[in-house]
UniProtKB/TrEMBL annotation, chain A:
Pfam families per record: FAD_binding_3 (PF01494)
Reported function: FAD-dependent monooxygenase required for two non-consecutive steps during ubiquinone biosynthesis. Required for the C5-ring hydroxylation during ubiquinone biosynthesis by catalyzing the hydroxylation of 4-hydroxy-3-(all-trans-polyprenyl)benzoic acid to 3,4-dihydroxy-5-(all-trans-polyprenyl)benzoic acid. Also acts downstream of coq4, for the C1-hydroxylation during ubiquinone biosynthesis by catalyzing the hydroxylation of 2-methoxy-6-(all-trans-polyprenyl)phenol to 2-methoxy-6-(all-trans-polyprenyl)benzene-1,4-diol.
Protein name from the UniProt record: Ubiquinone biosynthesis monooxygenase COQ6, mitochondrial
Keywords carried by this UniProt record: Cell projection, FAD, Flavoprotein, Golgi apparatus, Membrane, Mitochondrion, Mitochondrion inner membrane, Monooxygenase, Oxidoreductase, Transit peptide, Ubiquinone biosynthesis
Organism encoding this protein: Echeneis naucrates
InterPro entries: FAD-bd (IPR002938), FAD/NAD-bd_sf (IPR036188), Ubi_Hdrlase_CS (IPR018168), UbiH/COQ6 (IPR010971), UbiH/COQ6_monooxygenase (IPR051205), UbQ_mOase_COQ6 (IPR000689)
Molecular function as annotated in GO: 2-methoxy-6-polyprenolphenol 4-hydroxylase activity; 4-hydroxy-3-all-trans-polyprenylbenzoate oxygenase activity; FAD binding; oxidoreductase activity, acting on paired donors, with incorporation or reduction of molecular oxygen, reduced flavin or flavoprotein as one donor, and incorporation of one atom of oxygen
Alphabetized PROSITE patterns for the sequence: UBIH
Domain of life: Eukaryota
From TrEMBL, chain B:
Organism: Echeneis naucrates
Keywords: Magnesium, Membrane, Metal-binding, Methyltransferase, Mitochondrion, Mitochondrion inner membrane, S-adenosyl-L-methionine, Transferase, Ubiquinone biosynthesis
One of the record's GO molecular function terms: 3-demethylubiquinol 3-O-methyltransferase activity
Main localization category: mitochondrion
UniProt-recorded name of the protein: Ubiquinone biosynthesis O-methyltransferase, mitochondrial
Gene name, Swiss-Prot/TrEMBL: coq3
Amino acid sequence: MHKLTKAALTCHGLGRCFISEKHVSAVKIISRGLVSAEHGDVYDVIISGGGMVGSAMACSLGMEPNLAGKKILLLEAGNKKVMDRVPEAYSTRVSSISPSSATLLSGIGAWEHITEMRCKPYKRMQVWDACSDALITFDKENLQEEMAYIVENDIVVASLTKQLDSMSDNVQVEYRSKVVKYRWPRPHHMAESIPWVQVTLANGKTLQTKLLIGADGPNSMVRRELGIPTVKWNYDQSAVVAVLHLSELSDTESSLVWSTSHQHAEELLELDEESFVDAINSAFWNNENQSELIETAGSLFRGTLSTMMPSAGSPRQLPPSVAGIGPKTRVMFPLGMGHASEYIRHRVALIGDAAHRVHPLAGQGANLGFGDVACLTQLLSQAAFNGKDLGAMQHLLEYETERQRHNLPMMVAIDLMKRLYSTNSVPVVLLRTLGLQATNMLPALKEQIIAFASK
Amino acid sequence: MYCRKVGRPLLGLCGPGRSYSRAAVCRQRALWLRRSQHQALSRHNSTRSPSQSTVDPDEVKRFQSLASKWWDEQGEFAALHAMNDLRVPFIRDNLLNVHRAHHPGKPLAGLRILDVGCGGGLLTEPLGRLGANVLGIDPVENSIGTAQLHASYDPDLRDRVAYQACTLEELSADGAEEQEPVADRFDAVVASEVVEHLADLETFAFCCSHVLKPGGSLFITTINKTNLSYALGIVVAEQLLHIVPSGTHDWEKFISPVDLERLLESHGFSVQCVQGMLYNPVSGGWSWTNSTAINYALHAVKPRDSLQPDRAEESCPHPEDHAAATHS
């Protein structure tokens, strides 16, 4: 048994202290206060990267009631993106926001800002094959519900910034803060080191956090510093983006993403506006890639299908003709695919492009990121309600499993589509022509595809 | 929690040696003393144990090896870490039934909880994170040291979680001497995986009743005394699968829910619910179950001073919404 010695501390008559002694030595504490005091406060969550996905994560955490009172910080290396008035000209980078992403954004209060600014819902998607007459149409029944929304990336970020401004007591944001160094915590059974993640900024400040969320894009520093192996390759393609003025489809303007070889992309950028418009039109209307064999096979197949399923198939819409392009809107960026083999480590989680980078052909990149945000927020909220340490592996592993299960099939599908449509060789074209026509005739299959893409 | 049986073998373990310079030791001690005085000044009614820190290199080594035992979530205490998934919601939800949560994000704010047999603080810390003021006590000083070390890193916990190396009898005895006002007593006492290590349950129940406020809650998780609990809880868990360090439990000390209920009710408690818990060694997770044959959790309430015991609810509000009370 221990001898208890009661020592009354007469410090303003407050409290009582018990000092327990053993015969040989007393109970020891090693004070870590020394080290913590040097480095300042410990945050509960630091999000590195204030793009669409990082800002959405910050908003989402800030609005969670179970995380009220937690210290959340968003670090963005760039400037604050404020948009007092929506600019007349469209910006070139746009994203297709799926209904579930729209639900997330409206849950965090950013969607109303977006709709106030500018967004375009669409109800139908049609895909033409350059090498044959095959096409596929996606639309929701009766054209009533929106399939998805096209929103400029700048508008999404500005709306999220506006929302973050309104919750400044829950979430701190620091702009122009570039991170230069990360120090990772040792595993918990090394008792003498600081157990938190340490983030050193360019201005010399060091911050500590219980959980670091890496939302710093496809060339993520967080992922690199952790040494997480990433499966990645560059497609031999670049994307040229531009704003088009159409003669028909939409009100006035439309967005273009043209994926082609690097060389061709550079050539396209160098063309003057008229020639560029011609290039686009010829790409839509040109028949020279179609071979006789494929035409015959295609029409035969179509004939067969329509006798089997006479009612299926939506009305064909002809490809658009482009009248002009928005001035100075042409930009090019390289395309690649990347997938981090692990999304998490002890006290770290990757979200958005830092974890997975896809080809823009399906417009899914931002949606995958928003899906990460929704999943991780929900798991962190539950963990906080159970009194857990936010950086603990148990719920981070759940996040990784759930998101990898969702993201990997999507990425594989996009990559396959990209490879399938990158070739002019006859057998592949024949295969995809017939496949596309068949799929177009099967509404059940198309609904499955839409449902998967909208999750 | 695992008491001296585990403590003693662990005492002999030494981590890699470390030498401290005398200056560094003195500096740390001075800083610690200053900090502890500051904290004593700012704490009104909580009891604290600001022990001396004559930093002894051997003790440091012992802490290092102990820290790796308690807080290694895949180590020897993995099953205890996993049990938090059941016991924290159990405690939280039952307390929330009585005390409405006023602070989002801190549902247990304003409540004082005593964690008896806290060990390395595995259950103490989550309760602290939920906003309660928690005092963890354990007779094994090394465990208390480990717990204090672990909690000291987290600024949230430093203010809300305190540890003391003593037994429940000592704590309640001191309270009795000083005529502890009701406000100093606890809203809840948690004795998780403790009752099966105690020699004298009558005294335990008496002391719990003494340190609890009227209307306060007592939460116990322990092991039933059945053939099944011997087979699975001792033979399989200790000797075959090594889920629990060998020699931790003594079957004679297990108690059945019926006996425990009778004991508690003889001390004036009113048992609100009993619920069985089941450990899955494959997944490493716990789940609620209807059978209390092996592990079970119990919630009892000390009646208020008026004649009727304060019954918050008849049924046991645990996370999966099962009905309450099956005794095996």
